[in-house]
Design goal:
Distance between the termini: 16 Å
Number of strands: 8
Shape: globular
Strand order of the largest sheet: 2-1-3-6-7
Number of helices: 0
């Protein structure tokens, strides 16, 4: 689940187009819990992008207060990860460039989409998009954010 009703679409090179689009009724909608891979094939490869998720989500929290951004749940083990943050965005990346050349525990090869990253952040390319939350830090100003990764078992 990602607590975001909007995301920033990207061009063929993975750069945000400057648009902010609604996720409702699209393959980008994770406002309710669902398996990440259930719609991943509907994200076609494009120039410079092998397919999969590599998108910034615009979190619903608007006042920079600590808020739930995303959850990951594994039904087999009962493990739950909750991510809370003061940041305005979170990047969802699904291991799109993994190709089996890296080998992990037990000789397991890491193939395409065998990994996931959820990165709290400001929106990519914000410096060129005046309607995105500002990333400008003026002399004398302090930048501070907080992110919590909370693990549990249910």
């Amino acid at each position: 689940m990602i607590a975001a009703s909007h995301y920033t679409p990207i061009d063929g090179g993975g750069i945000p187009t400057g648009e902010i689009k609604a996720v409702k009724d699209t393959v980008m909608d994770f406002t309710k819990p669902m398996k990440i891979g259930s719609r991943i094939a509907k994200l076609p490869p494009s120039e410079g992008n092998p397919g999969g998720y590599d998108h910034n989500y615009c979190l619903n929290s608007k006042d920079n207060s600590m808020a739930l951004a995303a959850t990951l749940y594994d039904a087999g083990s009962g493990r739950l990860l909750e991510i809370l943050t003061t940041e305005p965005g979170i990047q969802l990346y699904t291991g799109n460039y993994l190709d089996g050349s890296n080998v992990g525990k037990g000789g397991k090869k890491y193939e395409k989409h065998h990994g996931i990253c959820l990165e709290t952040q400001h929106f990519p390319d914000s410096v060129h998009q005046p309607h995105f939350p500002s990333i400008v830090l003026r002399p004398g100003q302090t930048y501070q954010h907080h992110t919590v990764h909370r693990f549990s078992v249910s």
